[in-house]
């Protein structure tokens, strides 16, 4: 749930967070038409900061803006799901390998705190559940101390949450959920131990069996294999 408007620097920031949460939570479904006048009244702002918020969401690929006053939540795309998965197969293992080599005591503390808040996602997760998973992965990425890599993965995560929801439409078995939990713990152990190879291997497995991979499969595409050394 978005924080009260007064906690944000601008009305545009507040509108952005409200709309983004509604899109990522599935309240605004892919293809939904968003009337700007109605949205502005609902949020309690004028249309000027609302349009600024919508432009930010457009830059993240979450909405389309036409010549008219309505916006539209972007449809899910098999090609985008594949592209996201292919990039994450290369970049996530790199990030955790660097994290194993460069992590500080503060990084280790942040990673351990973040993993305590993560449980394998069930069908129809809340926005808070998605945020907890993102917080854990951000803690891993941050420990790489490669700012360009951190920024790139953060941007990919923005686009990937809706595909995770699609992946969750197929109920996961308890065995699958336990495996995801074991992978989270294994990543922590490998990074703390400074084992870059183990961290990279676990992360690649984590991506290959991820909700994003399930979503790509449901949309009829599969990513090209990425060489292990990349």
TrEMBL record:
It comes from the Bacteria. InterPro entries: GntR_C, TF_FadR/GntR_C, Tscrpt_reg_HTH_GntR, WH-like_DNA-bd_sf, WH_DNA-bd_sf. PROSITE patterns: HTH_GNTR. GO terms for molecular function: DNA binding; DNA-binding transcription factor activity. Keywords: DNA-binding, Transcription, Transcription regulation. Residues 9-76 form the HTH gntR-type domain. This is GntR family transcriptional regulator.
């Amino acid at each position: 749930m978005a924080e009260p408007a007064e906690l944000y620097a601008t009305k545009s920031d507040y509108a952005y967070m409200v709309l983004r949460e509604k899109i990522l939570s599935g309240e605004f479904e892919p293809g939904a038409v968003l009337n700007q006048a109605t949205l502005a009244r609902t949020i309690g702002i004028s249309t000027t900061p609302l349009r600024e918020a919508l432009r930010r969401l457009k830059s993240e690929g979450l909405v389309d803006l036409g010549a008219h006053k309505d916006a539209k939540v972007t449809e899910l795309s098999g090609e985008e799901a594949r592209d996201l998965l292919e990039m994450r197969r290369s970049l996530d293992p790199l990030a955790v390998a660097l994290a194993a080599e460069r992590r500080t005591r503060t990084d280790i503390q942040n990673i351990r705190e973040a993993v305590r808040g993560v449980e394998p996602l069930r069908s129809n997760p809340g926005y808070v559940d998605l945020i907890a998973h993102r917080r854990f992965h951000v803690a891993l990425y941050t420990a790489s101390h490669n700012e360009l890599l951190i920024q790139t993965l953060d941007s990919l995560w923005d686009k990937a949450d809706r595909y995770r929801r699609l992946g969750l439409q197929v109920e996961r078995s308890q065995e699958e959920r336990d495996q995801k939990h074991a992978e989270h713990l294994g990543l922590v152990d490998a990074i703390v131990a400074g084992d870059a190879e183990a961290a990279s291997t676990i992360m690649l497995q984590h991506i290959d069996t991820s909700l994003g991979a399930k979503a790509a499969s449901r949309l009829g595409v599969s990513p090209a294999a990425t060489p292990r050394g990349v």
